[in-house]
Amino acid sequence: MSNTPYNPEQEGAKMGFADAMSYGDYLHLDGILNQQHCLSAAHDEMLFIIQHQTSELWMKLALHELQAARTALQQGQTPAMFKMLARVSRIFEQLNNAWDVLRTMTPADYTRFREALGPSSGFQSYQYRMIEYVLGNRNPNMLQPHEHVPEVHAMLSAELARPSFYDEVIRFLYLSLDGHTDNMPSLDLASPHALNEEVQARWLEVYRDIDTHWTLYELAEKLVDLEDYFRRWRFNHVTTVERVIGFKRGTGGTSGVQYLRRMLSVELFPELWTLRGDL
What we know:
12 helices
């Protein structure tokens, strides 16, 4: 074995970047890596900040994919939509794995910097709220925490004024089965989607004859897969919070674990889960 240090330049690798774009330039790493501002001397605060910042980046990508998937669905580009939905499921798998890192923080670690958070809380994440709005869990009461940022409030309000992704899926369901949407139930854009027996009956048609309705069947299972990962993310959130703070109130004033457990009962696509008992 040679003791001569390996030099990538000898194989053609560019080693000088005074006149060219580098890896750090392309990713704007200086800006990203200088945004971790701890407000205490606690060692684990850096973990807490990076955990939530990276989660927000993954949520940004999830929204990018969901909004593109809705457009693809509207344009009848189902193969592209399926790829995007599969990617969103994998994104939530990454978000789930991140809880494993945060759970290395003990209650004693967290109490050293918790007061520095003030009333800030994860339930104030506008990107998380946007994901719920896009998927159909539309609670207008959750606009209020964003009133202090007019552009964010306007963006969320605009989402509430348009059909959700699942609304578009239901439209596609009726259009595919009937060739029109005359019999489609009316939409309630300002409320969370609730179980609709008529919609469930139409999905049952699909599941009872999957060979005829394979595209609709594949779409339904993609949505179940996505919600499966989303539910796991919520569950991991609950267990992590309970492990770290027990049943204390959340920093944002919520009931903490009790609030998060209530969110576990929310179903994004209830017809697709309930119909399984009718097959």
